[in-house]
Each structure stands twice: as C-alpha cells, then as structure tokens.
Design goal:
The protein is an alpha+beta fold. The protein has helices at 33-40, 45-54, 58-80, 92-108, 153-169, 211-228, and strands at residues 5-8, 13-16, 21-23, 29-31, 111-121, 126-136, 139-146, 177-182, 198-199, 202-205, 237-240.
C-alpha cells in the first residue's frame, strides 16, 4: 500500500498512509502479511550471508533491488491489463525479467482475473496485495512474482496467507494451486517431462508443504508479531486538504 493517499473529508485532511498497513476507512489499520513475516520470522541464512558480504553497501543494494522489482511488477501488471510495453523505456536487465513473464504467458496461456488485488480481511486481521490470480488448465492459480536470486520458504508462507484471505472471501471459488513465478531462476529451458512450468531463466515454483500447513506456520508467526506489537500504530502523515492565506 506504499504511497497511498486517502482524503478524509470528514476531518478535512489528506493522509499519506504507512506502507506496512492497509485500511478500509482511514481509521482501523491491518498489518500486511509481508510486514508480519518480515518482522516475525528469521531471515533466510542465504540472505544473512549476503548482507554480511556486502557490509556497508547492503542497504543501498537492497533498495536498488526493491526499486527494480517494483518496476518489473508494474510492467507485468500493465501487460496483464493489455498495455503495450517498449524495450527502450526499461533497463536491459529489467526487460529480461519482463520478457520471461511474457514467455510464461505465451507457453501456458493463463487467463487472468485479477492483478495487484488488494485484500483486507478484518476477521483474520491481515491484509496484502495479490500479484495475480489466473486460470491455467481450468485450475485457479494464485501466483506471486519474485525477481530476486532465490525463492524462500517465507515466500510460500506469504502465499498460504493470501490463499486463506481469498478463500475466506470467496468460498464458492477457492484457489486450487499457489506458486512463485521466479524470473531469475537457474533453469535452461522448458521441462522436457512436462512436470513443471518453466523456461529459460524462469520457473513457477510450488511449495512442498500444503497450503493449510503454510497457513498454520503463518499463524505461528503472527502470534509472535502480535505479542511484540500489542498496540501497533500506523505511521501516517496528515495535511489539511484546503489552504488559504
């Protein structure tokens, strides 16, 4: 929910919302799934080692990677809604990831029903943004795009929580399968046995654990997060909606 601005006419304020939280009315806030996992779960050993190797440059490199990921996510969302993209508006490494997503679409013909879908579930007390929901071979897939070098267990836990939110709101059409579309994979091409969806440098990775068990793991993490943040508050910048000298 980064950079979201809400206009509260009742109090004559415009409010820049805290990207870690979502809200339906600007009053009650719900932590994002990614915030809960990031704060309440130990970082993967590979990431910890990477941070140590980079030392003082780690924060800058991480921010650059996050910016790159956001650009690629926005481009993918634009493709899904039918926009035409041109290579000269992206860096070459960004364009590579976008082309891998396009290859996934050409080879498996997903029928998209949602992209960048914000979900807030007051009953579960969580919120988040789903990268994409699509039908592939009559199965409803919930897919999250990851542009980094690795896919970690926490990514699957995130998808388990997203599936729980979707299924709670749409019991008539629950998600059948979840997966991470990794656009920086080590794969060399299509799976000759046809067991997995993949191509050169991209792959749809599925968890070994069931979605139910992933949700259980998320609940364990959330219980710790709730204990550490008993009275959490969203950071909000409020300004008047009208000025006159």
């Amino acid at each position: 929910m980064a950079n979201t601005v809400i206009h509260r006419e009742d109090i004559r304020q415009v409010m820049l919302m805290d990207s870690r939280f979502y809200t339906l009315d600007g009053k009650k806030f719900y932590p994002s799934v990614t915030t809960i996992i990031s704060d309440g779960c130990p970082k993967p050993a590979q990431l910890v080692s990477w941070w140590k190797q980079l030392g003082l440059y780690a924060d800058r490199v991480a921010q650059e990677a996050a910016n790159k990921g956001k650009i690629i996510h926005n481009a993918i969302s634009d493709l899904i809604i039918g926009k035409e993209l041109k290579a000269n508006t992206f860096r070459f490494d960004e364009w590579e990831h976008i082309c891998r997503f396009a290859e996934f679409c050409h080879s498996h013909n997903p029928r998209f029903i949602h992209t960048e879908l914000q979900q807030i579930n007051p009953e579960l007390g969580i919120a988040g943004t789903l990268d994409m929901l699509c039908y592939i071979n009559d199965e409803l897939w919930l897919i999250d795009v990851k542009t980094g070098s690795g896919v970690y267990e926490t990514h699957y836990v995130q998808l388990g929580a997203y599936k729980k939110m979707w299924d709670s709101d749409h019991p008539e059409r629950p998600v059948d399968r979840i997966g991470v579309l990794h656009t920086d994979a080590t794969t060399r091409g299509a799976d000759k046995k046809g067991k997995s969806m993949q191509g050169k440098k991209w792959k749809v990775c599925e968890p070994e654990m069931s979605a139910e068990n992933l949700w259980d793991y998320f609940c364990d993490i959330k219980r710790l997060w709730d204990r550490l943040n008993p009275e959490y508050e969203a950071r909000i910048i409020s300004l008047p909606d009208t000025l006159k000298l």
